[in-house]
Amino acid sequence: MSLWTAAEAGAATRGELRGDWSVNGVSIDTRTIRPGDLFVALKAARDGHEFVAQALDKGAGAALVDHVPEGVAPDAPLLIVPDVLEALGDLGRAARARMGGKVVAVTGSVGKTSTKEMLRVVLSHQARTHVAEASYNNHWGVPLTLARMPADTELAVIEIGMNHPGEIAPLARLARPHVAMITTVAAAHLEAFEDLAGIAREKASIFEGLEPGGVAVVNGDLDTSPILIDTALARGARVITFGEAAGNHHRLTGIGFSDDTTVAEARAWRTQVLYKVGAAGRHFAVNALGVLAVAWALGLDRALAAADLSRWSPPAGRGMREVLLLDRVEEGLSFELIDDAFNANPTSMAAALEVLAAATPRDNVGRHSHGRRVAVLGEMLELGPDEAAMHLGLADLETMSAIDVVHCVGQLMRPLYEALPEAQRGRYAAKAESLAGKAARLVDAGDVVLVKGSKGSKVSLVVDAMRKLGHPAAQS
């Protein structure tokens, strides 16, 4: 069964059809396109029309375009529309309309992608599930995810993000979720908003897309939680809160960390729940509790959902942990790397440092007699006028005292570096490239190393350099 026939796609977009074709997928990138995909010629850094001929040569079943590109035969399989992005939205809208299952939408300043992946693990074990890839959560990512959704999907998970006011509501109305979850509200993209309340109102606009009788799953621990709850109630939603505070419908009551696992106890609607996730971190445990609330709202088997959470672990750049051998023969000469270099704001930085503080280094295996907890911290971007104070404020975190060495990257991190005790200061670099070039001097056998920063800080270069120092340890 094809994903889209020419007739279906033409009816959805009201476009001009060339040829009678069918496609099994939708792609916007010729580097990853598969035979039988519909290639969507979006205009971004490059105009996708420049790659239509290449896409067809690679076996694309058809292309969605606003004109016949140069080098493409007039009788090639095409769908010609006035605006490609709008047509992609039309495809997404049609896919949502023909789908008879239920949709979950997820947003939040921190943790929406990891939560989406937890939902993938939990929901796919109980129904035919379609989930957004990577962080496809913007004005083209959401319609692309919907356009890729098979008609027989029973459950779908759509991630919705934003950088500026007014972005979430249109995407939520496109997705039309039955359940909408907000992981948290934090100082991310604050430069585009007056304050946290403004961010909360933007996040809460996800409820504008809720289907009648929909459910809002909301973090109840936040100063801005009343904004989220009141907005959901005003939209006629049923509200389920989760978190650590008393009064939440789903409440975390106990938590324990090992180096790569979090075990949590909770009460959910007066029922005791025990679950674990494959990563250390209080924030992971709290969001997993929100996932259980979503499962409850969908009417799924909660015991099975709680058991399946243990099969989730974070992807690269989002807290993934790996052991790297510094010597192929001497297995003890290794260090542990926590790769959290995809994004950062004060809330996620505090959570990552808590994970590092709870890690257990190994003594008497490296140049230093004691294994160290090492943090490589890059700038937190888009925080607005108080960004300097937010960076400096990291020095006051209780967990910071448990970190042995702190290396800092970027001008915004300079105040933090200077505020640290001299014994705790590692290296400072204005650019990540400079610190990456000194990777061998930053790490020792027995260390646990956290690399954390906004994507724009480029601390992922330090992660790459550290990976090149060693060899992945054998996995059991």
UniProtKB/TrEMBL annotation:
ATP binds at residues 108-114. Its main location: cytoplasm. Residues 334-454 form the Mur ligase C-terminal domain. It comes from the Bacteria. Its EC number is 6.3.2.10. Residues 23-94 form the Mur ligase N-terminal catalytic domain. One of its GO terms (cellular component) is cytoplasm. GO terms for molecular function: ATP binding; UDP-N-acetylmuramoyl-tripeptide-D-alanyl-D-alanine ligase activity. The keyword Cell division applies. Keywords: ATP-binding, Cell cycle, Cell division, Cell shape, Cell wall biogenesis/degradation, Cytoplasm, Ligase, Nucleotide-binding, Peptidoglycan synthesis. The keyword Nucleotide-binding applies. Pathway: Cell wall biogenesis; peptidoglycan biosynthesis. It catalyses: D-alanyl-D-alanine + UDP-N-acetyl-alpha-D-muramoyl-L-alanyl-gamma-D-glutamyl-meso-2,6-diaminopimelate + ATP = UDP-N-acetyl-alpha-D-muramoyl-L-alanyl-gamma-D-glutamyl-meso-2,6-diaminopimeloyl-D-alanyl-D-alanine + ADP + phosphate + H(+). It is found in: Cytoplasm. HAMAP family: MurF (MF_02019). Belongs to the MurCDEF family. MurF subfamily. Involved in cell wall formation. Catalyzes the final step in the synthesis of UDP-N-acetylmuramoyl-pentapeptide, the precursor of murein. This is UDP-N-acetylmuramoyl-tripeptide--D-alanyl-D-alanine ligase. It comes from Pseudooceanicola pacificus. The lineage of its organism: Bacteria, Pseudomonadati, Pseudomonadota, Alphaproteobacteria, Rhodobacterales.
